[in-house]
Amino acid sequence: MLNAQFQSGGTNNERRKFPRYPVIERVSLAVEDESIGESIGIGEATDISLGGLRVRYLPKNTLVQAGDRLGLLLIDEEQALSLRAQVVHHGTSDSFGVEFRNLSPRLQQEIGYLLQRLNQ
Fold first, then answer.
1. What is the pLDDT of residue 63?
2. CB within 8 A of 37, min separation 6: which ones?
3. 8 falls in which pLDDT band (50, 70, 90)?
4. What's the pLDDT at 78?
5. What is the DSSP letter of 12?
6. How far apart are CA 81 and CA 33, in angstroms?
7. What is the pLDDT of residue 60?
8. CB distance 87 to 38 below 8 Å
9. What percentage of residues in the chain have a pLDDT greater than 90?
10. What CATH code is carried by the domain that includes residue 36?
11. Domain total of the chain
């Protein structure tokens, strides 16, 4: 379980359900477009929260549009998480934001653990 200091940390952006934290260590993402069952490539997470993350440096970034449903394999030095997400905005030419979908309690706990490790 996340401690109170961790839950209240991060940015003060009022529109977010959960605070976002910068990813200081390299966290890679294998990304698949679930609607066509095709790999889009390996990207990088730049910030993450309990509710989603920002993807950048994805080779086929221009093919991704708001509303697309993606399968993500989030990989760092200690764990690999298989997640489902939906693109909620395409912020820049090299990045987009996704919101996690259908997270089990176990996956929520694993994401919380990742956030705690990344922000120690």
1. 82
2. none
3. very low
4. 85
5. -
6. 17
7. 80
8. no
9. 43
10. 2.40.10.220
11. 1
* Predicted TM-score of the model (pTM): 0.79
Instruction: Return the closest-CA partner of residue 39 out of 55, 25, 58.
Output: 58
Q: Which residues are bridge partners to 39 per DSSP?
A: 32
Beta bridge partners of 22: 47
Distances (CA, A) of 41 to 10, 17, 32, 120: 29, 28, 7, 29
Taken as a whole, the chain contains a residue count of 120
- Opening angle at CA 32, ends 112 and 84, nearest 5: 35
What integer is the mean pLDDT of 2-7? 37
d(CA 98, CA 40): 15
Amino acid at 30: A
Domain residues for 25?
4-118
| Other CB atoms within 10 A of residue 12 CB | 7
Round the CA-based radius of gyration of the chain to a whole number and report it. 14
Task: Answer yes or no: is pLDDT of 112 > 50.
Answer: yes
Residue 27's alpha-carbon distances to 23, 50, 62, 114, in angstroms, are 7, 15, 21, 10
Question: How distant, in Å, are the alpha carbons of 6, 7, 41, 42, 82 from that of 101?
Answer: 22, 20, 20, 20, 11
